[in-house]
Amino acid sequence: MPLPSYRKFLGAYTSASERYAEAFYGIIMVTGCTGMVSLGVPPEESGVRFMLWTALLVNILWGLIDGLTVVYGSMVDEVAADVAVDNLRSGKESEKAADDILDELDGTLIGKLGDEDKVKVVEVIRSADSYDHFVNKVRWEEIKRILAIFSIDFVTVFPVAIPFIFFDDVTQAVRWSFVIATFLMAYLGYQWAKYARMRRWRIAVLFSSFTIFLLALSFALGGI
Amino acid sequence: MEPQDVPINRAVGEATHLPKRMINFIGETLSLGDRLSELLYGVLMVSSISGLVVIAGPPEDSGFYYMLVVLFITIVLWGLLDGISYALLSAADRSERESLIESLETEGDATRRKKAIAEELDETLISRLDQNSKSQIVEIINNGLPRQMERMKKNRLTAFEKKIVLAAFLLDFTALVILVIPYLLFDTLALAALVSHVIALVMFVLLGFYYAKFAHLSKWKGAFVAGLLGLILIVFAESTNLVLI
């Protein structure tokens, strides 16, 4: 898939903040697991190849699990919203149902409304002519969303795994991999904070400190 | 009752209420889908990290303490990372919403303004209402959104987002507490790891069951798929020598 089409694909099936979060998980998973495995592999070339495969397999599995849990987790939340709407419309625990609905909508523009307007929104939902329930099936659209999330986790392996291709010694490879991961995490933290209008350098330093801590942990446990 | 028993009873009472308070706190902070996902991530992290450490760690008795320390540090770190990323996601979504409000303020055309509001509601339960009700809600938002708000310059984590960090951390930690018990009870590392992985497998099955139950899908199919996923992870790890169980 050419790069513009891939970007379009990601844009259609993931939000910007989700993309930052997935890249964050991808880098952390690969550095965490390679750091841990480096404690037990032989320091010669076969060990480096083993690490490369570990990095790839860990992120393939993580990408699939992450994609599946995001899709199924949101399915659970959609069904919970349906239950709250049904309870509100049938008058069963309607006060709790109204609270649950407003909680569910709190992240949208409705969360910015005053209490009176929120009550009006709940009333419209209660007295609506019809309400279609969420279709809880994994269709092609959901599969594409899983693939989009999976692809972000998968792509983030490559910059961090480059040293495992070029170095013959595990210690050297792991150290360089951590250096790359530290800079990537700082860049990611900076961009994410910029998007969220937070303190960019503070988040960049916080993110890179995670990989530095992982490096120190592997070192303290007798690894690299 | 002796006077000194009163504080002891109160302390015991508070201690027995602690798990209930913790469950309530997590329930108020994370959605049902997020709670299930967090538990699954916790089980996954503990079982895979303990698997990696079994090959990496020393085989003698000191391996137990080594394993416990590594698991503890890993889960604390993972819980924090997970919680922080959740809180940042929430902060980024808030920033997105502020950007939308700012753009709506400058939008002079009422039709375009309403269209933008309707698009924002497209992925919520509002989109499943009939057309007339949707239009009414768009109208309420259009009239009710605060005007000339102070522009958001710097975004900070809210008290609720800080609670999200703690709630995600607690759920990951719960998985650690359950799966670490075999390492405290058994003498050999390989046996403890085996029992821990069996418990993890049971937890995978239960989580799959509840995912499916709350998503109104086939419960036993959900339990089977999640159990199979857990089993594949363990068998795969064994066949590639990633886990010595």
Mean pLDDT of chain A: 86
Structural class call of chain B reads mainly alpha
Largest sheet of chain A: none
For the secondary structure, the number of strands of chain A is 0
The portion of residues forming beta strands of chain B comes to under 5%
Please report which band the strand proportion of chain A falls in: under 5%, 5-15%, 15-25%, 25-35%, 35-45% or over 45%: under 5%
Q: How many domains would you count in the coordinates of chain B?
A: 1
Largest interface: A-B, 72 and 71 residues
Q: State the separation between the terminal residues of chain A, measured CA to CA.
A: 37 Å
Shape of chain A: elongated
Note the total helix count of chain B: 8
Total strand segments of chain B: 0
Identify the overall geometry of chain B. Answer: elongated
Low-confidence stretches of chain B: 241-245
Order of helices and strands of chain A: HHHHHHHHH
| Largest sheet, strands/sense/barrel of chain B | none
What order do the helices and strands of chain B follow?
HHHHHHHH
Question: What is the averaged pLDDT score of chain B?
Answer: 79
- Rg of chain B, nearest Å: 24 Å
Distance between the termini of chain B: 53 Å
How would you classify the quaternary structure? heterodimer
